[in-house]
Automatic annotation (TrEMBL):
InterPro entries: DUF433, Homeodomain-like_sf, WH-like_DNA-bd_sf. SUPFAM superfamilies: Homeodomain-like (SSF46689). Signal peptide: none annotated. This is DUF433 domain-containing protein. It comes from Arthrobacter sp. K5.
Length: 208
């Protein structure tokens, strides 16, 4: 499953301009699927970008770039989403798989504040003061699960894409409570959530 820039923006909290800047040379993260003519991100890209946005709230971008460069110096060349990175608001540490040892990737010291994947997936406020959605539950009735539809947001408990339901409601000819005639598993509340989430995604598209 691939994620266009506007959906990546909503799910990660990165603005459209940040995404454009971060994939420009020297790239902070080049989309794993495609950069041109249209950027398409993988699920792993989305997780990594969300981590960067969370770190960026605490650190200058250059320190994040330095940390990623240091990973390469250590021959750690897997996708950035493979690594657990933590910050103390001064530097970036790489935490080992057992969570016991840390390596300073920016060569500074301080009291470490653990930034776990649970923190990255939970709602937070980005550097611009904007609320970033809960990654696993961007709306009450919308879910993101990597092993379901490749991580594309779906109606909770189903394999039905949120945008399929949003499209059904888009011209106003079908009301939310009528969605069950087409998709019995979708409540009116879930249909409204799908439409609202889609509206957020479309707004990002307009800010290109």
């Amino acid at each position: 499953m691939t994620f266009p820039s506007e959906l990546a923006s909503v799910l990660t909290g990165a603005s459209m301009s940040q995404l454009s800047h971060w994939r420009s040379a020297p790239a902070l993260l080049a989309p794993e699927v495609a950069s041109k003519p249209k950027a398409l991100y993988s699920f792993r890209d989305i997780v990594a970008l969300r981590t960067f946005v969370r770190l960026r709230r605490e650190l200058p971008l250059q320190r994040i770039r330095t940390a990623l460069s240091t990973l390469q110096d250590y021959d750690l060349t897997d996708h950035p989403s493979s690594y657990q990175l933590v910050t103390d608001s001064k530097t970036v540490f790489l935490v080992d798989d057992e969570g016991k040892d840390m390596v300073d990737l920016v060569k500074r010291r301080g009291q470490t504040v653990l930034l776990s994947m649970a923190d990255v997936f939970a709602p937070f406020t980005n550097l611009q003061g904007q609320d970033v959605v809960d990654f696993r539950r961007p709306r009450q009735n919308i879910e993101v699960r990597e092993k379901r539809m490749g991580g594309w947001p779906t109606i909770a408990g189903t394999r039905l894409r949120y945008d399929t339901v949003a499209l059904l409601l888009s011209d106003g000819s079908v009301q939310p409570e009528e969605t069950q005639y087409y998709y019995p598993e979708v409540s009116a509340e879930a249909a409204l959530d799908a439409a609202d989430f889609d509206f957020s995604v479309q707004q990002r598209r307009q800010t290109r």
